[in-house]
Amino acid sequence: MSETNTNYNSDRAMATFFIIVMAILLIVVTIVLPIFSFYNKIQTKKEEVKKTESDIGLALQKRNNLIPNLVSTVEAYTKNEAEIIKEIAHSRSRLINSIENNDVKKANEANTSLNSALNRLLVNIEKYPELKSSEHFKTLENQLLDAENEIIDKKESYNDTVKNYNNCLNTIPTKWFAGDNKEAEYWETLEKEKDLPEVTFND
């Protein structure tokens, strides 16, 4: 009888242990794993924002690298645009510093100022037929146009990833696991840039 009770207690203990293990596994599956899943989702979208932000920086840098050549070409034909050229240099420097510091807000402001100054310079070039007809200038113009189109594409891609990331931070249940993650800033929409004067020099 004693041996029977011992076996019964042993079986009961094993059953209890099995129930506890299953309960723990159930908690892990239903609570812990989703937490990791939601956290990883946030981190993945955050990395996508960083990647597309880096892509904008590279596109802007490509355009920035063309500007000194453009300025030199303009200065070879005229000294009358010194004020605009000075503004271009200042805005370009601000933009480079903002990109290096990952400051989207200041980069937006600097890029808008640079676009404005560049467009005013290109409008004024209408006054210089020899410069306008220069093959070197035409090549630069096409390169700048290509660079601008690339910047637009990269901005749109970045803003899409920011939208997805910010929605993730503000949507239940992922917002419960956002921790100290903050919303990313959008790059300035292209409305202001579209309002700038459009200039082409193709004959």
Give a verbal description of the structure.
- By secondary structure, the chain is an all-alpha fold.
- 79% of the residues lie in helices and 0% in strands.
- It contains six helices and no strands.
- The N and C termini lie far apart (109 Å).
- 20% of the residues are buried.
- Residues 190-203 have low confidence and may be disordered.
Brief write-up:
With 203 residues, the protein is mostly helical. It has 6 helices and no strands.
Rg for CA atoms: 30 Å
Our estimate of the beta-strand percent is: under 5%
Largest sheet: none
Overall shape: rod-shaped
First-residue to last-residue Cα separation:
109 Å
Low-confidence stretches: 190-203
Oligomer: single chain
Order of helices and strands: HHHHHH
- Helix content class: over 70%
Record field, number of beta strands = 0
Mean pLDDT: 82
Count of DSSP H/I helices? 6
Which class best fits the helix and strand makeup? mainly alpha
Helices and strands in order, then pairings?
Layout: H1 2-77, H2 82-100, H3 104-124, H4 129-132, H5 135-170, H6 191-195
Task: List the main descriptive attributes of the protein structure presented here.
single chain; 203 residues; mainly alpha; rod-shaped
